[in-house]
Amino acid sequence: MKRSIMMLLMTVLTYTFVIAQQEEEPPIPPRRSKAGKVGAFGGFTPGWLFVNVKPINDYLTAYGGAPLNDDGVWLWGGGGAAYIMLIPNLRVGGMGMGGSIQSTMLDAMGVRRDAELKVGFGGVTLEYVLPVLERLDISFGTSLGGGGIDLVLRQDAGGAKTWVQQWKNFESLTSTSRDQIKQTLSGSYFVWVPSMNVEYAVLGWFGCRLGVSYVGMSAPSWTVDDNYELLGVPSNVSGRGFMINAGLLVGTF
Fold first, then answer.
1. Residue 85: which of 125, 39, 42, 131 has the closest Cα?
2. What is the pLDDT of residues 123-172, one digit of tens each?
3. Fewer CB near the last or first residue (10 Å), C or N of the chain?
């Protein structure tokens, strides 16, 4: 799947570059001046995060669950930025991304165990843009904000669900006497995302980009079902990792 995504992104960039080279003068967008870049944009910014799920999988397999896919997590996202003009080629904006992966195990007794890992983050972006060619830029920057992970664990003993049974589950104080269990283990983090992107202005109002980032997470705070403090979480359980990111952007370039 990673290879397919990379091939798709490279195909899109190659196609747009060839089309752009075939256009007649004057160039679109207009020829740049030495005064610095101006403009603003926003758009769709997906990514593929190579999060380390091994620490979670060790617990899932030890306690009757199925391991999560370790190929990475597809993140849907969006963002935008504008040049602040006070410092040439410096822009400020914002971004947000999120995605999830799941696993399911059905044992010999008919008990189903589901696990879902959700990763999300967002923050303010600060980037410096280095013009390379008439339409080609390289940007260096970082994002600072917050985010984290949710690990949703569900267990279902199967069978029909009735109104009375659900109230018996509500009354029960022990998990062994219930046919359904769900708990959400949530970790909140301070997030920083240094990144480098190659950006190409296809038209005066449309551009695309491809880049790499590292999602860093620190200062965790864990809860169970957003109500109770969760202690003893291993330090290697988080949503940090390297990320391949892309973008389809609309604005002025």
1. 39
2. 999 999 999 998 999 999 999 999 999 999 999 887 778 888 778 777 77
3. N
